[in-house]
Amino acid sequence: MIRALIFDLDDTLYPEHEFVASGYRAVAEHLSTLCDVREEEIEQTMMALWTQEGRRNVLPAILNYCRCEGTRMEELVRVYRQHKPRIPLFAGYDKLLREFRSAYRLGIITDGMPLVQRAKCAALGLEGIVDSIICTWEYGREKEKPNPYSFCLQMACLQVEPEEALFIGDDWEKDCLGAHGVGMRCVQVQSPLFRHCGRRTEEADFVVDSLFNLPEVLRKLEDRNEAA
């Protein structure tokens, strides 16, 4: 019997590109106070750079574009990482998660800088919905998924055994392999938008388009338990 649902964060509960865009808005606002370029122009340029060249090149390129003397890359990185995110959950997920909470214990396991990931959770209102949030990097970057440490820790926090927990995430390698490594089943959320991006699904027990398909998965698992 499933007693706990454990979720990945980025691109599972909210669209990660919204956080990137939120960070770029914060950087644009900051840079506009230091140079003679409008905030809107800086933001639009950063978004175009992101689309054309990828995230890694955006901050160095915008610093060169604005020609802000005395402004260092580290300053822009700090603004990006420490800004208060303006991000939404996927539409309808707030209500759905609250419905899940009435029947299951809920947890989150997320990789990345803890300061950033916890700021995302706060902005999304998740701290008031789920029972436990684990940021893997708080225990060392080597503990990020699929390392079993955070999966075992979350099960201990939620007081469930592997067969009583279901992990839900978008990344087959981090989420599915990590969950299976500790004996937990995994649901891979693969939005139709990503169906042609080569994301592997063979390690998932179930593949769904969104969390709105999760109740059907849970019913199937209950039916299997009753038939066993």
Give a written overview of the molecule.
The protein has 228 residues and is of the alpha/beta class. The protein folds into 2 domains: 152 residues, Rossmann fold; 66 residues. It contains 9 helices and 6 strands, in the order E-H-H-H-H-H-E-H-E-H-E-H-E-E-H. The chain has a 6-stranded parallel sheet, with helices on both faces. Helix 8 links the parallel strand 4 and strand 5. The mean pLDDT is 93.
Condensed summary:
The chain is an alpha/beta fold and 228 residues long.
CATH topology of the largest domain: Rossmann fold
CATH architecture of the largest domain: 3-Layer(aba) Sandwich
* Helicity range: 40-55%
Global morphology: elongated
Distance between the termini: 12 Å
Helices, by number, come to: 9
Strand order of the largest sheet: 3-2-1-4-5-6
Q: Output the helix-strand order.
A: EHHHHHEHEHEHEEH
Main sheet characteristics: 6 strands, parallel
Number of structural domains? 2
> Which stretches are poorly predicted, pLDDT < 50 over at least 5 residues?
none
Q: Let me know the number of strands.
A: 6
What class would the helix/strand composition place it in? alpha/beta
CATH first level of the largest domain: Alpha Beta
The share of residues in extended strands comes to 5-15%
Q: Name the CATH superfamily classification of the largest domain.
A: HAD superfamily/HAD-like
Rounded to the nearest angstrom, the radius of gyration is 20 Å
Mean pLDDT: 93
- Multimerization status: single chain
